Each structure stands twice: as structure tokens, then as C-alpha cells.
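Morning. Coffee machine broken again, so started the prediction first thing and wrote up yesterday's gels while waiting. Chain of 80 residues, entered below exactly as on the submission form.
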Amino acid sequence: MKIPAIKRLVESQTLQTLVEAEEALLDERQPSFEVEGADEGEQLTHVFAAIWILNHMKDHGADFPAALREYTKKVRVSIS
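Came back before lunch.
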């Protein structure tokens, strides 16, 4: 997971285009825009993170840094 790649997606894509990219990656197809990542798994991680962050920003009126902190907290809990 690379924070700069997630930030670029949040800043450059809409929620709809990210959902479409997630579906494409799950179907082993190329998304309609470039998603950074060493492989499809990392690309999917970046897209999923961007979707989560955009939803959190919308639902809670949070800015990107606050939403990113919440997302990374969830990741840390899930892997510990």
C-alpha cells in the first residue's frame, strides 16, 4: 500500500470511476485509467482504499488527512 498512489486516486477520480476500476480489476481486466501498483493485488488495494476514503470524507465531512488516518487505523487493526 502506497499512500501517494492512494492520494492521487482520491484527487483525480470520482467514486463511480473507482468502483468501475475495482470491478475491472476483480474481473482481471485493465481499468480505464492508470492505477499504480506492482501487481493487480496492490492496484486493487489502492482503489479500495481510495473508495473507502472518498466515502468517509463524504459521510463525515472529513478532509483527506483525517480520512486517511481512519483508514490506516482500520488496516493496522486488521493485520495485528
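The two ends are 16 Å apart (CA to CA). Going to sketch it on the whiteboard this afternoon.
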